[in-house]
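A quick word before the example. In earlier lectures we treated sequence and structure as two separate objects. From today on, think of them as two lines of the same record. Here is Transcriptional regulator, LysR family written that way.
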Amino acid sequence: MLEPLLIFVTVVEQKNFSRAAKLLHISQPSVSLHIQNLEKEFGNKLFHRSPQYVQVTAAGELLYQSAKKMITYYQLVQEQIDQLKNRVTGKMNVGASYTIGEYILPYLLEKYIKQYPLVDLEVTIKNTTQIMNELTGGQLDLALVEGKVQDTGCLISTFMIDELILLVSPSHPLASHPAIQPTMLHDHVWILREQGSGTRHYEDHLINHFKLRVKKSFIFSSNQGVKEAIIAGLGIAILSRLTVRREVENGVLREIPIHNFSLKRPLSIVQMKKNAINSKAVEILTQQLQDIATR
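And the structure line, produced from the sequence above:
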């Protein structure tokens, strides 16, 4: 757009057509043609030419001063547009299951929010089934859930591996054992999460795997509720290690290993395939989460 003016300004500053052509990486005839076209357009001579020198005319000097301002302003606008392309703005709806939403996501978002303060972020925390329903219903841009996700309409990638552990109160009979055999889990009261929870899937798996006799069970719809129930002595439970780190360190909960058995599950990023073209805000958060998996 500004090529003729840029060539003109270069000739003025170099005071030579050949040097201007060399500096701009174009031929001298091309430089001459652009200058001739400008002179026709303005109806005035822009240079006094001789074999020894090129001297700008009064009209040329006027055009030079204006052209310099135009080029500077154009470059400034171009920089601003480039910055605008790279700005991360807009609204992003992220859904997370309880373990991720309450114990992982706040720390993951700290860096993101500092880097991209113009993003309007809304986080929904529910159980895995509810979050997946909202994702497939188009209410979420991104879902972060626990356990295996089986949906052919989704793009799924693991960003972290989570371990579930058996927990009891310090006063519980099992608390005196450094580790237990699976048979020692018969006839206990269990504190369970609700159906649809990612944690509940693994609780049921453990109980069914060892064909445990369950004396009684209580159902709580949050990790915090399960923790408080264990502390109160209502029963035993399994929870993510991530959710009980402080309580175990402080001694209000006791972790009991099960001989030759562990429960691990993927924590996954889930997006709808039909929404594969995402906003820059979603792309960057997804990339930051995927980077965790490579650490």
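Notice the following. Residues 58-86 form the longest helix (29 residues). We will return to this example when we discuss secondary structure assignment.
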